[in-house]
Design brief:
12 strands; 3 domains; Dna Ligase, domain 1
């Protein structure tokens, strides 16, 4: 089902001053599993990180029909859907499929912003005389995705702005097309709950509700300075977004990372200091290796340990000494924090994130002779690990590291510095 594209004069094919498509793959990882394993088709499946993963990365629409949701614990999901089939994720397969899809979209327009592994924005404003109406291009895009992915479903939204197009792609799932022409935008958003607009999370929605605004129309009726006083320029953008007037451009350039981080969930009820330190060292090594690959240094290191008590945990931001990113040095600082603040609580997750990044561009003259030798040693180790697999050469202290496979991070892109699968 497709929304009407008629303007007030009844011309369905008139030129839009701005036309944006949002392509959203439907239950992407689960759909790939069902495509590749016919016995899973039309069955409720949940994809987890590894065969023993405890949290759903995504689930099929058959599972969603039972109330199962992404992010749900597997035991909770099975209470709702006893027949749920657990599938270990295959991130390299998903990355390859996503790359094929994103590269194929150039046939529609060169102005593409890869938003995540399963989403993209297409600016088709200047393609209307070439391809036809935005509705026609939405159908072209859906057919193209289906052809290059061997039948995977996607939903497409077309609108005059990015955030309205993103909302539109969510209206008809799976495999739907929704068109919101510029002249219908404000009326179509009038009764839409504010949580449906990308960028408005539970806390922002609660703040708006305090001012009597639970729908986009009610937000639009508020004085803009109410949001601006609380959220600054972001508040103004959200106020405009609720009217379909956001002006965000389709961005093709990938900005340099502002942080590099890795985290892992520990086995249930982990109170072993040795296990926790192994996970910490593992994450420190991953962060350091990724910084080296990017030719970047960090000024600060965030270390966080989430404990079983709700809202409790240990965290600190530590200064990092100048020099080549070294997982051992990162770990020594993280371990000192851990041994000082930990008192035997069960730890359920560790997180290590490097911030205040700056690019060194391989300028060895910035380093002392000892540091140059260290950099050369790391270059040899990193080269071996790239060729033969992550941690082929690794500290002995992480031999007992997590066996959970890597996953695709939200910032993954098919090209550039974010094309790796880091977690």
């Amino acid at each position: 089902m497709t929304a009407s594209t008629r303007n007030p004069k009844g011309d369905a094919s008139c030129y839009w001053p701005r036309a944006i498509l949002h392509v959203d793959m439907n239950a992407f990882f689960a759909s790939v599993e069902q495509r590749d394993f016919p016995e899973l088709r039309d069955k409720p499946i949940g994809v987890t990180n590894g065969a023993v993963g405890t949290t759903l990365i995504t689930c099929s629409y058959e599972a969603r029909a039972h109330g199962v949701k992404t992010g749900m614990r597997i035991y909770e999901a099975r209470k709702l859907c006893p027949g749920l089939i657990q599938r270990p994720s295959r991130p390299n397969v998903y990355a390859a499929v996503s790359t094929r899809i994103m590269h194929a979209l150039i046939a529609i327009t060169p102005d593409i912003e890869v938003f995540s592994v399963d989403e993209a924005f297409l600016d088709v404003t200047h393609c209307q005389r070439l391809h036809g109406s935005p509705e026609h291009m939405a159908r072209m895009t859906q057919r193209l995705v289906r052809d290059v992915s061997d039948g995977l479903p996607c939903s497409v939204g077309a609108a005059a702005t990015k955030l309205t197009a993103k909302y539109a792609s969510d209206v008809m799932k799976p495999n739907g097309i929704t068109i919101i022409p510029p002249w219908e935008t404000r009326a179509r958003l009038q009764d839409v709950p504010v949580e449906k607009i990308c960028g408005i999370g539970p806390r922002t929605a609660a703040f708006l509700a305090q001012h009597g605004a639970r729908t986009c129309g009610e937000v639009a009726a508020l004085p803009m300075n109410i949001l601006a006083r609380r959220y600054g320029i972001t508040g103004k953008h959200l106020w405009l977004a609720c009217q379909g007037r956001d002006t965000g451009a389709v961005v093709q350039d990938i900005a340099p990372p502002k942080s590099v981080g890795h985290g892992k969930v520990l086995p249930p009820h982990t109170t072993s200091a040795r296990t926790i330190e192994t996970y910490l060292r593992h994450m420190c090594e991953k962060v350091a290796a990724r910084l080296r690959r990017l030719d970047m240094q960090a000024g600060k290191l965030y270390v966080g340990l989430r404990t079983a008590a709700p809202g409790a945990g240990l965290e600190a931001v530590l200064a990092i000494a100048h020099g080549a990113p070294d997982g051992r040095r990162f770990f020594e600082q993280a371990r000192a924090l851990f041994r000082e603040q930990w008192h035997g609580e069960a730890v359920i997750q560790v997180q290590v994130t490097a911030t205040h990044l700056h690019n060194t561009s391989g300028q060895l003259e910035l380093f002392t002779p000892d540091e140059v030798r260290t950099i050369q040693r790391f270059a040899a180790i990193d080269g071996i690990n790239r060729k033969y697999g992550e941690f082929t050469v690794a500290p002995a202290t992480i031999l007992d590291r997590s066996s959970m496979p890597n996953v695709i991070a939200p910032a993954w892109r098919p090209d550039g510095h974010r094309q790796h699968i880091p977690d």
